[in-house]
Specification:
heterotrimer; A mainly alpha (355); B mainly alpha (475); C mainly alpha (41); A: 355 residues; mainly alpha; Cytochrome Bc1 Complex, Chain D, domain 2; 3 domains; three-stranded antiparallel beta sheet; 13 helices; 5 strands; B: Cytochrome C Oxidase, Chain A; 16 helices; 73% helix
């Protein structure tokens, strides 16, 4: 009986590597493993099976153990550990030698990034990366997008073409992918919120912009560290070449109302969820929003068609939960307490100007 | 036992107790971040934040409590099994001070958060955050301990090596390799290659360092405390070698969906799944040994804690291999279920082993018995009842997160409010567990003063009955 | 209480037969059912 069981077990065991293959696009398949790997696997499987049988049912004479055999077995322990290490070193070596993708993060020590909003702020992304490390950001934020994340709620606003590839990381001196998400993934945070001043304000007081956030305050960082960290965040998800080319300082809007609205867009934190370049984020983009026909979800779950006009926008700012644009989460806080009538006017003018 | 040997054991022993009081306490405090984040804003005035507290917590628990209590147990067990005195006890004594200094320096440097200094900045590897300077000190301390332990084994009077010696000596060597890889070899790789080597270290910090040492310690205390022969010599051999074969390659199951060659991920999953074999070998051996003499579980606290540790070990390992399979992994990845699992292993299984070892060793190195059976019973019931509740709350929080984000497509902001209650329960139960650890520390420190004299053959703990002055005479 | 002997004796136990069954079931789950489970997104 026991022997039969063992043989059955062996049959399953030997067929394991084949059974374990399955589709996991867009990554390389197991067939791309070097042949030496399969040779090693075969040797390992046979050795383990033979050993298991011998250990449980073979003849053993412990008295035969000499000092030399103890030393040999001790060495075997170390060799077994190092064997798997070599197996890990092979793909690690391959991974760091792949060509970088076009969007790969690529900032050298000392290189300076100018704030894309034209605010005049600047910081060193590379040093910001080290600040990110020194303050343990990795324990709540990850730096890679899985294919699964696009289909689920993990990475709102991320596009399927932004799923991480090996080449994205080639220029990093070390990686901090992270194993835990207590906050959003930051792979494309710079694309979504390309605004250093907002990033700094958010680091200093996260709940000023996101009432539900559990992020701690990083107000203890020095001004330089905050700017570098903000520059690093802005560099994420943006093409390094475009950022390097710099931005002409945005011409001050003619209309003082629009200028005020633009300032409120940042200081109130609208920028955290609404882009102005048409790309998707946590909330709908402001670009071309005014005058658009949108489908909204009402509190009772039914949907309706709404034209984005001044009345709708005012309602959306003061009672955001009433009509949620379909496809977006209902997480916007009410700004009724924080904006005056003139603020509201200015914001509307600004949104109107983003045609 | 010579005096220097006792001195060395005592140093590692009481240091670990100090870190045990501190590490979990920090964990409980930082969990408040998820409940009332603004209440912890004052930390920013101290250049501190939740994220740094988390590094404090993991480093203190692993390097302060687990590592130091295990070394204390090793220094006690190895000479006993080899029937010789600990060789070079003075060296291990100074290694203990060096280790304590490293842990304290590590905390100071994490707190300082120095940016871009090759020696003093923290490293980006989980559980290996210690800056290079601390790493070097720890390497020296580990080499000192290994030197002393290995010399003891070489000087042994009995040719036959009991399985504990296998686990402990082998575990010390794999610890050394693992530590060198996690802290030094990683420096040689950039890009995702760095992450792959990091993954090798990440899980082996548990698999090649804590597991073999913890299991080796339990392999000693279970038969000794149960006064039974170990159930099976062959199973112990099978468990040891399959552990050494399957464990070291499992690390990448923490990064299964990251872009990397699939075959190495599959290798990690296959290794993780096969771990069920060494785990069952260990658990069968540990539970079948006292099975002939179950009444001892009620009498002997070291046995009771060891057996409970083994039960947690079984649960955590079944759960771990389960979590590593693709079908489950994508679902629970990034959630607190993973941390819950880590707590079941470290705060459940290996802390129980550590406590069992301490209860057993304490009277034998200090000459005093533990003065209160009631207090120790409280510690036990906290570990047996409050701890599982803590674990369940932790798991619940992770599962709700997984369901909310993966199945209902909620964002993480919406999920934070959904898990608030689970996290509150987790903090409350976690505070209970911390209280248990503090009670345990108090019990040992108080026993130093009021514990009655211990002689070999007595129970480690006095009877709660008034006739406590006499030793226990029943079998 | 008997003095605790410092010697540990080693028995000749084996896996109970049902442990083999458990291992087998587990491996079948992990390698045949698990990877192809319908729970993937």
């Amino acid at each position: 009986m026991k022997r039969l069981m063992t043989i059955l077990l062996l049959a399953v065991w030997v067929s394991l590597p084949g059974l374990a293959q399955h589709e996991h696009q867009p990554r390389p398949s197991p067939t791309e493993a070097p042949p030496i790997y399969w040779v090693l696997v075969a040797i390992a499987v046979i050795a383990i099976v033979w050993f298991m049988l011998w250990a449980l049912y073979g003849k053993m004479r412990p008295s035969r153990m000499t000092t030399t055999s103890y030393h040999a077995l001790g060495a075997l322990v170390i060799i077994m550990t190092l064997f798997t290490l070599v197996l890990y070193i092979i793909p690690a070596q391959q991974a760091q030698e792949l060509p970088p993708t076009a969007r790969a993060w690529d900032w050298k020590p000392g290189e300076v990034l100018q704030d894309p909003t034209g605010s005049g702020l600047s910081g060193e992304p590379y040093r910001g990366y080290l600040v990110y490390l020194a303050n343990g950001c990795i324990y709540c934020h990850t730096l890679y997008l899985r294919p699964e994340d696009i289909k689920t709620g993990w990475a709102e606003g991320a596009r399927p073409d932004e799923v991480s590839q090996i080449g994205d990381f080639v220029r990093y001196p070390f990686t901090m992918l992270g194993t835990q998400r207590d906050g959003p993934d930051l792979t494309v945070i710079g694309r979504k919120i390309p605004d250093m001043q907002y990033q700094i304000d958010h680091l200093v007081d996260p709940r000023r912009f996101k009432p539900q956030s559990v992020m701690p305050s990083y107000r203890y960082l020095s001004e330089r560290e905050l700017r570098d960290l903000a520059a690093y965040l802005v560099s994420l998800g943006n093409d390094p070449q475009k950022l390097r080319a710099g931005v002409a300082p945005a011409p001050a809007p003619e209309d003082p109302k629009i200028a005020k609205g633009k300032e409120l867009y940042r200081s109130l934190g609208c920028v955290a969820c609404h882009t102005i370049d048409g790309s998707r984020s946590t909330g709908p983009s402001f670009k071309g929003l005014f005058g658009d026909e949108v489908e909204v979800t009402l509190p009772d779950g039914t949907t309706a068609q709404v034209t984005v006009d001044e009345i709708y926008l005012k309602e959306a700012i003061l009672q955001p939960g009433e009509k949620i644009v379909k496809g977006f989460p209902n997480i916007m806080p009410s700004f009724a307490e924080r904006v005056t009538e003139s603020d509201l006017e200015a914001l509307l003018e600004y949104i109107k100007s983003l045609r | 036992m010579q005096e220097t040997e006792k001195q060395a054991i005592k140093l590692w022993f009481f240091s670990s107790l100090f870190w045990l009081a501190l590490g979990p306490l920090i964990g409980a405090l930082m969990s408040l971040q998820f409940l009332w984040p603004d209440a912890l804003n004052f930390l920013a005035d101290l250049n501190f934040a939740y994220s740094k507290a988390r590094i404090f917590h993991t480093n203190l628990v692993i390097y302060g409590w687990i590592a130091m209590s295990f070394v204390a147990a090793i220094l006690y067990i190895i000479p006993k099994l080899c029937a010789v005195e600990l060789q070079h006890a003075k060296i291990t004594y100074w290694a203990g001070w060096l280790w304590n200094f490293s842990v304290a320096l590590n905390l100071a440097l994490i707190w300082a958060g120095i940016v871009s200094n090759p020696l003093l900045s923290i490293q980006p590897y989980e559980y290996a955050e210690a800056p290079l300077l601390v790493d070097l000190l720890i390497v020296v301390a580990v080499v000192m301990v290994i030197f002393s332990v290995h010399r003891t084994v070489l000087a042994r009077k009995k040719p036959h090596l009991y399985v504990s010696v296998w686990y402990l000596l082998g575990g010390l060597y794999t610890t050394a390799i693992t530590y060198l890889v996690g802290n030094f070899l990683t420096l040689a790789f950039t890009g995702l290659g760095n992450q792959i080597i990091h993954a090798w270290w990440l899980h082996n910090a548990v698999g090649m360092f804590i597991t073999p040492l913890g299991v080796g310690i339990a392999y000693y205390f279970i038969p000794i405390a149960a006064q039974q022969p170990i159930y099976s010599h062959r199973l112990s051999i099978l468990g040891f070698w399959t552990l050494m074969a399957f464990y070291p390659g499992t690390g990448l199951h923490h990064f299964l969906q990251m872009p990397m060659p699939t075959w190495i991920g599959e290798f990690a999953v296959i290794g993780s799944v096969l771990l069920i074999i060494p785990v069952l070998a260990v658990v069968v051996n540990h539970l079948a040994t006292p099975a002939q003499n179950w009444r001892r579980v009620f009498d002997s606290f070291p046995l009771r804690f060891s057996v409970f540790g083994t039960v947690y070990y079984l649960l955590t390992c079944i759960q771990g291999t389960f979590q590593a399979t693709h079908a489950v992994n994508w679902f629970i990845h990034f959630t607190e279920w993973v941390q819950a699992h880590a707590h079941l292993a470290l705060a459940g299984a290996f802390t129980c082993y550590g406590i069992a070892a301490m209860i057993y060793i304490f009277p034998r190195v200090t000459g005093r018995r533990l003065y209160s059976r009631t207090l120790l019973s409280w510690v036990f019931w906290i570990m047996a009842v409050i701890f599982p509740l803590f674990y369940l709350a932790f798991t619940h929080s992770g599962l709700v997160t997984a369901v909310s984000i993966n199945l209902m497509n909620h964002t993480i902001y919406e999920t934070i409010s959904a898990v608030w209650l689970a996290r509150l329960f987790r903090t409350l139960m976690g505070a209970g567990v911390v209280l248990g650890f503090l009670l345990f520390g108090y019990l040992l420190m108080r026993s130093l003063q009021v514990g009655p004299k211990f002689e070999e053959g007595m129970s480690e703990v006095v009877e709660s009955a008034p006739a406590s002055a006499q030793g226990r005479v029943t079998a | 209480m008997k003095p605790q002997s410092p010697e540990i004796h080693e028995g000749e136990g084996r896996f109970p037969w049902w442990i083999w069954v458990a291992i087998l079931i587990w491996l079948v789950y992990a390698f045949i059912i698990g990877p192809f489970a319908v729970t993937r997104p």
